[in-house]
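Thread: "does anyone have the structure for this chain?"

Original post by V.I.:
We have the sequence but no experimental structure in hand. Need at least a predicted one for the grant figures.
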Amino acid sequence: MNTIETIKKQCQLLRLGAVTPGVEQLADRAAVEGISYLEFARKLLELELDNRKLRDMERREKAAKLPSRHQLELYDSTSAESLPKVRLEQLKELSWLDQNYNIILMGPSGTGKTFLSAGLCHHALKNGYRAYFRTMEQLMTMLRNKDISTLAKAEYRRLSKAQLIVIDDIMIISETKVEANAFFHFINALHEKTSFVITTNKSPKQWVEVLGDEVITTALLDRLLYRCEIIQLGGQSYRMQNRKSIFETSE
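Reply from O.Q.:
Generated one for you, tokens below.
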């Protein structure tokens, strides 16, 4: 077994997955460029570290359960009722996340609430935060099953360690009093250590109509609104303005 094959075998044993296929190419470059042994070692380790960062990001994105569209650079800030670009750039600084602030994105369907919230979640992930995107339905399913399902219990533990949780369409489904109480206790347990980005088509005053309990709703709003920025989005539905058709445009 030659030296390259020996190194590859050693890399496999050490679980250096990125170095194993790249060592020969790096060795050839080192010979051509005449780099030192220390520089060669640095490049090998850098290759492995970059690969591990990439795989870690892929794992965290999978756990976050982001919707397919979440690229903030694609957000259209030109509309008068969109989030202005300067405000978006301020949100991307993530100082609100470091200070445990919450954000409520409020507005009609199709005005970019989900896109913005998913984009902020992805941006937080890229900057090393533990961030997750969940619909209200997914969250309530987890809370209903966390005491009887191993998967739901693991999900609860995962979210309990989050630095950011996006809750999409928070008031789109009606909850029973038991479920409303479970949701309140979830928020209550996390509100001082976790930031929330919430999307909703209802104002906070209308939440009591969905939750059906004024006491629980008041206590919930007390925790969410204490350190919170409410962003109102308006205008026509982006999806309706850019909808696709199966028919060709008539002349």
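V.I.: this helps a lot. The first strand starts at residue 102 and ends at 106.
O.Q.: and Confidence is low (pLDDT under 50) at residues 237-247.
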